[in-house]
């Protein structure tokens, strides 16, 4: 790799030959940038990993392993996989260049809309299993199949992401040697041992169970209790949670519970076998029918910058979420963020939240609480000129230096964009902290920023 990453203040930003246009998403492990390929003139997504995690995982040895598995993932081509285009390394920071997909995640779909029909469940699982079959034939085990890694495209398709590199990028604090998300991990994966495609069959069984029953097979009690329950393997049939079991419930339960077998030898031998069993138990799957169901809904001309979600500090947003979670349960967080993302001012946000409450007394109490919480955000945001004038350039540079280890080379760009909307240096610091997903890193940034 001979190209140097070029970040020019006030000019274009590059990772290798790829222009960086913004941030698509951020997580505990790293950042996904929106990029542009100048040779083919196409949009791309560029994923990287936080430097401190690389060092903690083994430094140079980790980077070499990342490169090998990234290239293996790039050779797996299938309509139900997010395509890996390129792999780069700038210094000790790796970048994975991938297909940019206009999509939402299955996780978001499950949280935001009514339950899926059995035909929709079949359409999703059939495509998930087709993608798994492709990577398994290429010698790759996903290791971290979960709703957040299942992309639902505008055209009604399903694409798996993060396959093959999960062992490198999913370094959850679940114990030495373990990789994956605990609720979806096979017993042998929990033990930190070697896994084969049957671990993905197990994870798909958990996913199928969740889609059918509306809950995971094992819940609550922390990681140790979950591990004990998974090893025991005592789980109720998924259709037993439904008020009215569907036609073919016994065959459906049998297929899903077989996929969830504790002993890998008792599971389906591969993804194709599980797909065949589900096909005999679920209604016919029509991929085209997913198009309207999963296309992301966005209000034209409105982005986060012009909404309450873009204006509220991380502390205020968290308090609103806590208020709603206390009244409505886990859905409260989703309702709070959805209301903030669709509201141009505090009144609109409050009205959107209150529309989800049925009791008049509860609505009035919530309105008073939210009015107090949103008082600082009721006024229009500061103009870019006023905000920029209020924060000295040297302060912006200092904050960018503190932020860079957490978000990578786009730190200065992010600082300048958020400074244009921040009413004070403190408000800017809080907005930047909100871009750091890890709670420990966020606290360290706030402490160092002062």
Please write out the topology.
Blueprint (H helix, E strand, L loop, with lengths): L13 E2 L2 E9 L3 E8 L4 E8 L1 H7 L2 H15 L9 E7 L2 E7 L3 E3 H7 L5 H20 L12 E4 L4 E3 L5 H4 L17 H4 L6 H17 L8 H11 L16 H11 L11 H9 L10 H5 L13 H4 L2 H15 L2 H11 L4 H9 L5 H14 L10 H7 L2 H15 L3 H9 L5 H9 L5 H11 L1
Antiparallel strand pairs: 1-2, 2-3, 3-4, 4-6, 5-6, 7-8, 8-9
Number of domain units: 4
Number of DSSP strand runs = 9
User: Separation of termini?
Assistant: 38 Å
- Please state the structural category: alpha+beta
The level of helicity is 40-55%
Average pLDDT rating: 77
Portion of residues in beta strands equals 5-15%
Overall form: globular
Number of distinct helices: 21
CATH class category name of the largest domain = Mainly Alpha
CATH topology of the largest domain: Transferase(Phosphotransferase), domain 1
Task: Catalogue the unreliable spans.
Answer: 1-12, 168-179, 291-305, 378-389
The rounded Rg comes to 23 Å
Helix and strand succession?
A: EEEEHHEEEHHEEHHHHHHHHHHHHHHHHH
Widest beta sheet: strand line-up: 1-2-3-4-6-5
Largest sheet: 6 strands, antiparallel
What is the CATH superfamily classification of the largest domain?
A: Transferase(Phosphotransferase) domain 1
Please identify, by name, the CATH architecture of the largest domain. Orthogonal Bundle
């Amino acid at each position: 790799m001979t190209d140097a990453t070029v970040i020019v203040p006030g000019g274009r930003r590059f990772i290798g030959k790829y222009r960086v246009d913004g941030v698509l998403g951020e997580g505990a492990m790293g950042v996904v940038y929106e990029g542009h390929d100048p040779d083919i003139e196409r949009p791309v997504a560029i994923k990287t990993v936080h430097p401190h995690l690389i060092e903690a995982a083994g430094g140079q040895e980790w980077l070499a392993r990342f490169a090998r598995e990234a290239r293996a993932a790039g050779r797996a081509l299938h309509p139900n996989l997010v395509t890996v285009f390129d792999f780069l390394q700038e210094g000790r920071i790796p970048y994975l260049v991938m297909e940019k997909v206009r999509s939402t995640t299955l996780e978001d779909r499950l949280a935001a809309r009514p339950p899926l029909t059995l035909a929709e469940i079949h359409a999703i699982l059939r495509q998930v299993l087709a993608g798994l079959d492709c990577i398994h034939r290429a010698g790759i085990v996903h290791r971290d199949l979960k709703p957040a890694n299942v992309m639902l495209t505008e055209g009604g398709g399903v694409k798996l992401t993060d396959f093959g590199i999960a062992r490198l990028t999913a370094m959850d604090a679940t114990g030495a040697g373990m990789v994956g998300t605990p609720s979806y991990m096979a017993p042998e994966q929990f033990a930190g041992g070697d896994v084969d495609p049957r671990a993905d069959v197990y994870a798909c069984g958990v996913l199928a169970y969740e889609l059918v029953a509306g809950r995971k097979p094992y819940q609550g009690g922390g990681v140790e209790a979950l591990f004990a329950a998974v090893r025991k393997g005592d789980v109720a049939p998924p259709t037993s949670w439904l008020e009215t079991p569907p036609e073919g419930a016994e065959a459906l339960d049998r297929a899903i519970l077989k996929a969830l077998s504790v002993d890998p030898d008792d599971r389906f031998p591969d993804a194709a076998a599980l797909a065949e069993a589900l096909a005999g138990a679920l209604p016919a799957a029509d991929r085209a029918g997913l198009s309207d169901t999963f296309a992301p809904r966005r209000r034209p001309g409105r982005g986060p910058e012009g909404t309450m979600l873009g204006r509220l500090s991380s502390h205020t947003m968290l308090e609103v979420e806590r208020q709603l979670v206390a009244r409505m349960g886990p859905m409260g967080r989703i309702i709070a963020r959805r209301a903030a993302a669709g509201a141009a001012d505090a009144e609109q946000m409050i009205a959107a939240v209150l529309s989800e409450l049925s009791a008049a007394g509860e609505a009035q109490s919530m309105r008073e609480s939210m009015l107090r919480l949103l008082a600082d955000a009721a006024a229009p945001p500061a103009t870019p000129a006023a905000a920029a004038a209020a924060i000295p350039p040297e302060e912006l540079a200092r904050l960018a230096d503190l932020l860079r280890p957490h978000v990578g080379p786009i730190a200065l760009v992010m600082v300048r964009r958020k400074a244009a909307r921040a009413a004070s240096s403190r408000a800017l610091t809080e907005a930047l902290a909100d871009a750091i997903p890890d709670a420990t890193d966020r606290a360290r940034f706030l402490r160092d920023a002062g």
